[in-house]
Amino acid sequence: MTPQSEAELADLIAAARDPLSIRGGGTRALMLPQGPALSTRGLSGVTLYEPGALTLVVAAGTPLQEVRALLAAERQRLPFDPPDLAALSGRGGLSTIGGVAASNASGPARIQAGACRDCLIGLRFVDGRGRVVKNGGRVMKNVTGYDLVKLLAGSEGRLGVLSELSFRLQPLPQTEVTLTLEGIPAADQAAVMARALSSPWDVSGAASDPAAGRVWLRLEGFEEQTRYRSAKLRARLAPAEITLTEGAASAALWAGIRDLTPLAGAEVVIRHSARPSHMPGLLQLIARTAPAQVLSDLGGGWLSIGCSAAEAPALLCALQTEGARAGGHARLLKAPPAVATRLPGAPPTDPVVARLNAAIAAEFDPRGLFAPARLSAEA
Amino acid sequence: MQMPLPDPQILARREEILAGLRGLLPADGVISDPVALRAWECDALSAYRCPPLAVVLPRTTEEVSAVLRYLHELRVPVVPRGAGTSLAGGSMPTADAVILGVARMTAVLEVSYDDRFIRVQTGRTNLSVSAAVGEDGFFYAPDPSSQLACAIAGNIAMNSGGAHCLKYGVTTNNLLGVTLVLMDGRVVTLGGPFADSPGLDLLGVICGSEGQLGVVTEATLRILPKPEGARPVLLAFNTSAEAGGCVSAIIRAGIIPVAIEFMDAPCIRACEAFAKAGYPDCEALLIIEVEGAETEMAAQLARITAIARDFNPVEIREARSEDEARRIWLGRKSAFGAMGQMADYMCLDGTIPVTELPFVLRRIAELSEGYGLKVANVFHAGDGNMHPLILYNANDPEDLARCEALGADILRLCVEVGGCLTGEHGVGVEKRDLMEVQFAPDDLEAQMQIKDVFDPHWLLNPAKVFPLRVSQSRREKRA
């Protein structure tokens, strides 16, 4: 089913009797479809683009690549730099902007510019009752009524099908520079990144490769800014061995970190969110549990972990237990469907919070049309 | 402005309710003396007043939980209150409601510079959050103009903004986690000092829910390293259209200053008479602030002034010293005080797409003339968040009625051009009855379903946000 308009989408959902499997580009979903596929690809195109107001309104099925190209032509971008996981998942396909919003997909820029949910300023969706709902708008300061935009961002289609999205944009920086630090022991990397992030120089990316002993820090802005700031940052982090990468080479480096290219060979990829200062302990926990390849981002606040399907359950379980103890959250980014369905989801650990989640889902999707097997464990 | 009639059964049980509350809190935690209650009869929307049934001032999350559990059992409405600085009547009480104030909950609970957050009790004022980390070179970014007085609890309830949110975002973008007490007394933790949490983003919907979903007692807030320096430039224009065009051109050039403030002629003249900041006599004035090191600020200001020259400026005044910078901000920061000297005023808060600025200012001037009431405009131009101030005489009921009608027309105009009713003050009671201008019935129904989940009996701040008629059946289900 590929509705060509929001009204058609609403009719389809209102008439549905059985669970539906919402599909954007199919680059992020982990599960096997639960029922007939409902594609958003018929809802495509830009409704409004006002470069002078830094605002974009776009239909949910529009490919992410198209959005990027459109904005780049006006020297603007999505501030949260969403990853394209088509290569990681190995399935190909065209990632859609709706899939980005539904999974709150955000890249390394999140550390400074916020996540997808922070840049999403309005949306329209069709809920499980077949009702069209709008929330937010096209202006960046808006506190009129409850913020359902945040509730829908990252909800993975649990409450309805997104039909239209409004984003706050950012100008493309004139220049970017990456400082690469070599020979930093894994246990020290979070502290090095914290030192950079506690400086006044607007670090817009802080990632590391623990096994390689390498830390990357990104600076963006006008040429005089990046020149001044990279000199200051170099002095602050002395005597570390630092090389500079500029322009397109720097952009390519961060696209790889964003899209998790180094982990593309792994059967399963888990992302663990925690306090950056917990990174050394988490690396030890991972090393004790299973052979794995780790890439850190957000100053150590995100660990992306590639491992084999056989090792995945033990690793996921260890991380979820640690998350419940020390604060944090592990979720799957990539897994073969057969493996994913066997792995536990990550329900909110507090039963009261879990019940609030289930009650909201029941309000918007009383017939359970959008309840995937994995999320239904939360109910 | 209408409020529902107080529930006579609750009024009749006042003594019993007070005795119950006194059993849950220390002696100084329950206020019931009619004279003392006068201090809580309104917030910063002082045109509307009503003393509450009682006021409770707990000191811990446990006390908040005990009070809410008790009032939930008795089905007594609760109005949560931070510092009472709401301009929308967000903490305005009704005669049958208990005010739950968090003003005594001001502790700093945890600070981490490695993970760049602070965890505080929510009665703490906005500015004192920054003060707690200021000596170590950090600050909390959202800066509502009431920041000296306003509490984090109210900032979260209204998703407060400020002058610097063009670069740093508003409260919701800087709020990492909360401890929330539900109306039935259950306590939950949402989010925390990490990027992602499982399940739906409940934290995102709590922020800006105007105290209708629960009482937030603790908050984890992102802190940022302070910039090396900040410097404003003042740009004066002959027309609002030129000032508006200049704002768009700066943004198009890829420059995001930390603040772009706009003042129109009535506002400039009032501020000048009041604060004597030395502003030029012109039709429109922009104050643009940039941040960074000396050389960075100089380069950015050079770019901005070069763009401004295309818009026929009357004057470009760069701050060459701390004192000059202070004087540039002086008039803007005393704008509300200056207006208060001239007359009573109602401060609106609609947001518009920045590209509509010249048209909207022209329409506001026409409306102002039609109603025979003066309007001064001072606002955050970079994000389109307008603050038209309507001057009127509060002692004249007809004047108040005309002022309310003009305010409603201006807010309708904001929605018509693609904006919204409120950018940072909240709906409260003030914009409650205009919600249908912006939202279709299904849009409001979807929002009310969220309240049904968190507060099934509609006891928390019940007669706010949604038009009374729209929420009536839900509120009356209470008993």
TrEMBL record, chain A:
Keywords: FAD, Flavoprotein. It comes from Falsigemmobacter faecalis. This is FAD-binding protein. PROSITE patterns: FAD_PCMH (PS51387). It comes from the Bacteria. GO terms for molecular function: catalytic activity; FAD binding. The keyword Flavoprotein applies. Residues 1-172 form the FAD-binding PCMH-type domain. The lineage of its organism: Bacteria, Pseudomonadati, Pseudomonadota, Alphaproteobacteria, Rhodobacterales.
TrEMBL record, chain B:
Its cofactor is FAD. Residues 48-226 form the FAD-binding PCMH-type domain. The keyword DNA-binding does not apply. PROSITE patterns: FAD_PCMH. It comes from the Bacteria. InterPro entries: FAD-bd_oxidored_4_C, FAD-bd_PCMH, FAD-bd_PCMH-like_sf, FAD-bd_PCMH_sub2, FAD-linked_Oxase-like_C, FAD-linked_OxidoTrans_Type4, Oxid_FAD_bind_N, Vanillyl_alc_oxidase_C-sub2. GO terms for molecular function: FAD binding; oxidoreductase activity. It holds the Pfam family FAD-oxidase_C. Keywords: FAD, Flavoprotein, Oxidoreductase. This is FAD-binding protein. It comes from Falsigemmobacter faecalis.
